[in-house]
Amino acid sequence: MHALQTFMSSLSIGSPTSWEGLTVYPLLRPTAPEPFYDTLSEAIRGGTLHISEVSESGSVPELRVVNDGARPVLIIDGEELVGAKQNRIVNLTVLVPQLATITLPVTCVEAGRWSHVSREFMSAERAYHASGRRSKLGQVSMSMRAHNIAMADQSAVWSEIAEKSARLGAFSATRAAAAMYEQRRKPLDEMIATLQPLEHQVGAVFIIRGMVAGMDVFDSPPTWRRTMPTLLRSYGLDALDTAIGGDGFAKPDPQRFLATVSDATCTVYQAVGEGRDLRFEGGGLIGAALESRMGVVHAVAFPASDVARPTARRRFSLH
Predict the structure, then answer these.
(1) pTM of the model as a whole
(2) In this structure, are residues 217 and 11 in contact, taking their beta carbons and an 8 Å threshold?
């Protein structure tokens, strides 16, 4: 078994909980280890991680990350960084080695600003909405296959933000994705208060109106507890968008989705930072995982077709 199969075989599915159009099937791992790394928010709050533009003039698709701490730092695919010359999202999951400096591949989510508001970035404690993460993950995987560079389609991301912002009625003078989360802050906060982590939970399969929207899972329960609000905002924003998901009548099959992840064909790349980047696809899904010396740290997967399109509404459901 390859690393992803070994990791997926260690998971079980718990009883689901729901909020509005979002249903969360918890992924449990009773024998999980303690994390050997800090999360992005922990490291920034602790003053050991510093993220800035790569130079005074800056470069849209990359940032400079300095880890002054004694532990690696985990930065999750799609996490949003705010400040500096414009807000960005992270293109792939990265483990920044201790006492190291790396260049981080990112994508802009604030098309109308290119001026400093701070010297360093802060964590927004949210991830880019899940349907956008799905599209970006596909773009990055394609770029890695073709050029071995983890780059997204910047124009496509800006267009997608504009379309979703219009659907949600969220206006931003700088065309920032942040406006969507601010506009829906109250229901998102209610969702986070309602959906609490379980004992041994390391991740979840997320369902929007009866259709599988995606999966995020980590190696350790403490990591899930710390990152669950970040990812709930990602999937929750899609749940508030009626163009996303199914019609509410489909019966989701998360077990089938997990089995498809386990059986997917993997391509291995050298990770940005520490470890190996696993890209996988097949059976109607796409995904990625970060493998460290201790095994898989984070895996993310989405239906391969856009969940907003009717042609995708029969994937990973039973009738």
Answers:
(1) 0.94
(2) yes
